[in-house]
Amino acid sequence: MAGKEFLDLPVEKKFNNAGRVPAAVWEKKFEKLAPKDQNLFQNGGFALALNSSLCALISNNSIRNVLNVTQSRYSTAASMFLLPFISTTVAYEATVKSSLMAGNLNCEICALIRGGLVGAVIGYFYPIILALPLNALLATRFSTSPMPSKENALRFWTSLSKPIFRKTRLAAFIQVALGAYLGSKHHEIYLKMLRIPEPGRDPEKLEE
């Protein structure tokens, strides 16, 4: 196969071979990307994770105010910052970036949807849901607010969380939009890496 023909292979055919590309080759291809693409691919997910932590801190503070909880302020804040940050980072890495590098996510729309779902579920809903039981335990332990009976628990927590969801609607939109944007951009960078010839191989000598 001539060198030009190799470089002009249809992207679909390169997709089929993406899963067989060794990690060392991906690393070499990655090093040939523009610095801004390298930075976005490596660190873009951290922006989503940081927003997740901010959502967690806002919801945690709101729930503490409703339940009159003043104890364990710093330890609770640390937990609410770290857990969503780590969870969002791991979820995005597993569902988007790792799938791209394994050659299992070759659809741009799929990458966009996955990124948006990570932003919505792990980056927005999870931090708020996490804050509810954490502060409920503190309220029960320090008797800062009467807790509902088992029969009224669902209604109580639903009523308590509704204002928080309304208050953070903008954060929800940002998380979904950012996750979708990152998924789309990471897929675009993945395509750029696919188009880079494998290092140490002469396209003129490759056979069909």
Automatic annotation (TrEMBL):
Major location category of this protein: mitochondrion
Record's bilayer topology term: Multi-pass membrane protein
Coiled-coil regions listed: none
PANTHER family linked: TRANSMEMBRANE PROTEIN 126A, UNCHARACTERIZED HYPOTHALAMUS PROTEIN HT007
Signal sequence annotation: none
Gene Ontology CC annotation, any one: mitochondrial membrane
Protein name per Swiss-Prot or TrEMBL: Transmembrane protein 126A
Record has Kinase as a keyword: no
One Gene Ontology term from the biological process aspect of the record: mitochondrial respiratory chain complex I assembly
Keyword terms: Membrane, Mitochondrion, Transmembrane, Transmembrane helix
Transmembrane segments: 74-92, 112-138
Alphabetized InterPro entries for the sequence: TMEM126
Phylogenetic lineage: Eukaryota, Metazoa, Chordata, Craniata, Vertebrata
Domain of life where this protein originates: Eukaryota
Compartments where found: Mitochondrion membrane
Record flagged with keyword Ribonucleoprotein: no
